[in-house]
Design brief:
- 49% of the residues lie in helices and 7% in strands.
- With 414 residues, the protein is α/β, with parallel strands linked by helices.
- The chain folds into 3 domains: 5-98 and 384-413, Serine Threonine Protein Phosphatase 5, Tetratricopeptide repeat, CATH 1.25.40; 101-220, DNA Cyclobutane Dipyrimidine Photolyase, subunit A, domain 3 (Orthogonal Bundle); 261-377, Rossmann fold (3-Layer(aba) Sandwich), CATH 3.40.50.
- The chain has a 5-stranded parallel sheet, sandwiched between helices.
- Helix 13 (300-321) links the parallel strand 2 (282-289) and strand 3 (325-328).
- Helix 10 (174-184) packs antiparallel against helix 11 (190-201).
- The protein starts with 15 loop residues before the first helix and ends in an 8-residue tail after the last helix.
- The mean pLDDT is 94.
């Protein structure tokens, strides 16, 4: 299959405006053309067969609802089914982790233990360093490791192959591979990343692994790579989880009283405050919450993207509503800013399970004690899809058309 060379990967401008341009350039290809070629990794010089919207959707510079609405203006739900499902996979992962937060806690504990082992196990440290630098015996894996570090992006199929080779061929701890991805992916998301690695390892769907095969890599890289028959492990045993899963009810969104005077509290989790459901609140300020990093910091590429994206969101809020702005790291700073604006509370998009949640929950608790509560809203997209993310993806995917109709994104059920 030929590739449109005009669609090569390049570092994306981290603004909402740039995200909309990427979306508009892709919309015409989101139907059957996407379905037929989406699994092929042509390499970084050609990404015209995929949207490359993931860094924008991950930070909600452009939202899932906006992406699907734009696609359905041009395609039917049937024609765009595969693309819409890909958008919903991210939603599924986030909704599932919200209802199984102990999986995230276990990942963090296992990651800390693995990092400690690295300090004492020279052979493991050498193996992990070689994998991260792209200096292993597997040529395609090396290319992907370098591509990830240089660009902050990998094709989804390459991510699956990479994880499989890391776990089963190189026999490295999966949590260290997931951490490597989180530090380098511009679209790195705690739920999508952690649970995708667990899925490959056989932990998400117990006993079912994803095993990279030489013929599959050759076919779906357009024969850019032709691994030998013995280059990957051919048989592998799924990893096992000691702790049983238990379900945690979803949190309810807060109610914003009518005529509330609010400060918008913006985090990296949702950078389109102009589309938040604010229920007629009077907006009198915008603050950016940007705490420090837990553990190993993201790459310079990722940090630069996140910082610029957050600044873009704050500047947009200031321009749209003519607001004073601030950056806050503590409840005391938030309360002082809210008071200076004449606000009686802050409003933010709900922060999902992940790195940001513990510090943010502490901020919310301290803010409430200071007399300036933080109200957390939930987008309709999440409130309608997350309850269906209790089991496998199929239980959510079968409800996509009905939910899109409820959200007025599929008028006439076309």
């Amino acid at each position: 299959m030929a590739c449109n060379q005009r669609g090569g990967w390049r570092l994306r401008t981290p603004t909402r405006e740039a995200g909309w341009k990427v979306l508009q350039n892709f919309v015409r290809s989101a139907g059957l053309a996407y379905a037929s070629s989406r699994n092929i990794d042509f390499g970084p010089s050609c990404r015209s067969n995929v949207s490359t919207l993931s860094p924008y959707i991950r930070h909600r510079l452009v939202t899932e609802s906006e992406v699907v609405a734009a696609v359905l203006e041009r395609h039917s739900v049937v024609a765009a089914e595969k693309f819409i499902q890909e958008v919903c996979w991210r939603t599924y992962w986030k909704g599932w982790l919200e209802q199984h937060p102990q999986v995230w806690s276990a990942y963090l504990n296992d990651l800390m233990a693995a990092r400690e082992t690295l300090r004492n196990d020279t052979a493991l440290a050498v193996g992990v360093a070689a994998a991260e630098c792209g200096d292993t015996s597997v040529a395609c894996f090396n290319t992907w490791a370098r591509e990830l570090a240089e660009t902050g992006y990998l094709h989804n199929h390459a991510r699956m192959w990479f994880a499989s080779i890391w776990i089963f061929t190189l026999r490295l701890p999966w949590v260290l591979g997931a951490d490597f991805f989180m530090r380098h992916l511009l679209d790195g998301d705690p739920a999508s990343n952690t649970l995708s690695w667990r899925w490959v390892a056989g932990l998400h769907t117990q006993g079912k692994i994803y095993l990279a095969r030489p013929d599959n890599v050759a076919a779906y890289t357009n024969e850019r790579f032709k691994p030998g028959p013995d280059e990957f492990v051919a048989v592998a045993t799924p990893l096992t989880d000691a702790a049983p899963l238990h379900h945690t009810p979803l949190r309810a969104a807060d109610v914003i009283p009518n005529e509330s005077r609010v400060v918008l509290l913006i985090t990296e989790e949702d950078l389109s405050p102009e589309t938040w459901p604010l229920d007629g609140a009077h907006i009198c300020g915008a603050a950016l919450y940007r705490p420090g990093y837990m553990g190993a910091a993201p790459s310079n590429l990722v940090q630069t993207f996140k910082k610029a994206a957050m600044v873009d969101a704050l500047q947009r809020a200031a321009a749209i509503w003519n607001l004073p702005t601030s950056e806050v790291a503590t409840a005391r700073a938030l309360a002082a800013f809210a008071q200076s604006c004449g606000a009686n509370c802050a409003v933010t998009a709900m922060v999902p399970v992940g790195y940001l949640r513990p510090d943010f929950d502490a901020l919310v608790g301290a803010a409430a004690e200071s007399g300036y509560p933080v109200k957390q809203i939930l987008r309709p997209w999440d409130s309608h899809f997350w309850p269906h993310a209790k089991a496998g993806f199929f239980s959510l995917s079968t409800r996509i058309p009905a939910v899109l109709t409820t959200l007025a994104l599929n008028p006439g059920n076309k």
